[in-house]
Every structure is written in structure tokens, then in C-alpha cells.
Amino acid sequence: MCADATKHAAPEGYDVKAVEAWIKENIDSLAPPFIWKRLEGGHSNLTYLITDQNGIKAVIRRPPQGDLLPKAHDMGREWAIISALGPTPVPVAPTLGFCESPDVTGAHFYVMGHVSGAALHTAQDTARLIPLGKRETVGWNFFDVLADLHAIDPDAVGLGDLGKKENYIARQLKTWYRSWTSSYEAADYDDPRAHELQQFLEANIPKQGPARIVHGDYGLHNCLIGPDFKMAAMLDWEISTLGDPLADLAYALNQWILPEDPNPVKPDAASVVPGMPSRESLAARYATRTGCDLSQLDFYIGFNWWKSAMIIHGVYARYMMGKKSTEGIDLNDLRSRVERSLDQAAAAVNRIR
């Protein structure tokens, strides 16, 4: 039984007795029973900090309960990625054990070592945790780690079959445009720019270089910043795949919103504080570190803003259809974020027309 069961609700989705028995049998470094503490975030996966009888901490992770899409919340995929990246310069949590049998607790789960550090979700987090004089260090290292990830040959680390290597942008355009066209009636909201931009982007896709591991959601919210103000671990590999690394770079740059940016899509982004490096300097540093040609970066910037609009629009549609509770949700702001994302996409595309 959970060691502090009188103080904490039973961990959701876990048969504590069966899971702790499995860990005792398979992970020598941990001594159950544990204290379980829910960790928020992580795309709704059920993630808990577990502390053993000797005070050793680890993290356990499994998919949410209920019916899931076939490829969603794939714990084996996450496990394979962080296991492969462990010996590389990319900082990830150490892997401890993966349970392949769903019989133990109803789903696959894995256990990884606990890494001390803080994720930065908002500007308030950064202002509170990162001194002014250390914010440049955070920014430089954040993009250095992305460059290190993109320097890895996926075949060399056993991840060559993580996804299709060719036509990454074309496949993304098809997927996310389908999302828009299938939901604009339910959302009662269409925008001609969504279609015009899709046509321009599809007709002007740059030639893709060697496929690399793309994180897919690389932001300060998915990193643990350590006491040296450098990244201690990159988290949440759930949607990672193989593809065009410049799309990953542009996504990270788009999320790097600064205090001087007019009408930002995310006014409280973690980078919206004084002392952060500019996007131009970060892109130049990435180019120097990787040797990549960034002459077509505005295409990737525009593509990612367009993709963000598609994603937010899909969320907005689900709210409008009543599939998600609107309690505490500002639907007008959500719709405005779609419009502002399309504004940014159009601005980037206009720079290259």
C-alpha cells in the first residue's frame, strides 16, 4: 500500500500494490513501498513522483485512463527515445524500468530517475526562479541543447525507425489542414488565410535535408532548468518523431516571445521577461553550432504559426461542440489566438514572397 495513503488519494490509474511489487522485482535501486505525489503537466499522462523507503526519488508515467487513439500516449515510444538519448549530449532523465505488460496496472508504464530542476511555464515562473543576470544563460543553453539534439544521426542511436524520414512538412501540412477543414463548421469560424497560407506553403516547401529527431513541442515548459541555469533534462517526448530539424527550430523560436513583441499570441510566455536573448541571436547561434543554412527560416516560421492556428482552432471547435467544459475558458481569447497566429504566419510568408 502507498506509504502515505492516509494523507494522499490513491494514485489514479495505478494498482499500487501490483506496481510496487513489479518495481521491487525489476528495479534494484528502489525500495517500495513509496510515497506517491501527482505531478501536473505532460499531456494528461498520469505522472507521479515516487519516494522510496530510503528517500530515493523517481518518476513513474503511464497513459491516461479511458479509450485512446491507437498511437496516442505511447509509453514504449517515450521509453525508447530517452533510453537512446541517455548516452548523448542531450540531457534526459535516466531510465530505470519499463513494464511491457498492461496486466500489472491496465497500461504500459515506465520509471525514470528524478531530476532536480524547474520547468518554466509562465513569465512569472521565470521572473521568480531565474535572476536577471542568468536569463541569457538559460536562453543560450536552451537552443544549444536543441542544436545538440539535431546533430544526432537517428540511425546511429537506434531511432532510425521512429518515424518516416521524408516529406515531413508536406505530411504536417496535410494533417493539420485536414484538422481545420473538418472543424470550421463546428467552430462556426473560418478564415480565408488558413486556406491561402496552406496553398502557398504547400507550393514552396524547401528541400529537406537529413532527417533528424524533432521534439515537436520544444519549449521551456518541457525542460527542467537546473541550479546552474542550464537544462538538466528535456521532457515530454510524446509527439517526437523524425523530420526536418528546421521546423523544430522555428517552433522554438516562435515560442520565444519577448517583452517588446507587439500583440503576442502568448503574452505570459516564459520568455517574456527582461534579459532574454533575441530570436535573431539565438538563430545565429544555432546556425553556427549546426552549420545549417537558415536562409529559408521564414518559411518554417510561417509554417509553424500556421500549424499553431490549426491546433488552437481544433481546440476551439471542441469547446464550441460541447466536447470540453468551457468553465474558466475565455473562448474569445482562444479565437483571438487563432487570428494572431494567422497574423504571424502571414507576416512571415510576406517576407519571402
Task: Lay out the secondary structure.
Elements: H1 16-26, E1 35-39, E2 46-51, E3 57-62, H2 75-85, E4 95-99, E5 109-113, H3 123-129, H4 135-150, H5 168-187, H6 192-203, E6 212-214, E7 223-225, E8 231-234, E9 241-243, H7 245-255, H8 279-290, H9 297-320, H10 331-352
Antiparallel strand pairs: 1-2, 2-3, 3-5, 4-5, 6-9, 7-8
Helix pairs in contact: 4-7, 4-8, 5-6, 5-9, 6-9, 6-10, 7-9, 9-10
Per the CATH scheme, the topology name of the largest domain is Aminoglycoside 3'-phosphotransferase, Chain: A, domain 2
What CATH architecture of the largest domain would you give? Alpha-Beta Complex
Q: How many structural domains does the protein architecture include?
A: 2
Measured distance between first and last alpha carbons: 63 Å
Count the strands?
A: 9
% residues in beta strands: 5-15%
The largest sheet is:
5 strands, antiparallel
Q: Indicate the radius of gyration in whole angstroms.
A: 21 Å
Fraction of helical residues: 40-55%
How many helices in DSSP terms? 10
CATH class of the largest domain: Alpha Beta
Which regions are unreliable across 5 or more consecutive residues at pLDDT < 50? 1-7, 68-72
**Gross geometry:** globular
N-to-C order of helices and strands: HEEEHEEHHHHEEEEHHHH
CATH superfamily (homologous) name of the largest domain: Aminoglycoside phosphotransferase (APH), C-terminal lobe
Mean pLDDT: 93
Strand order of the largest sheet: 1-2-3-5-4
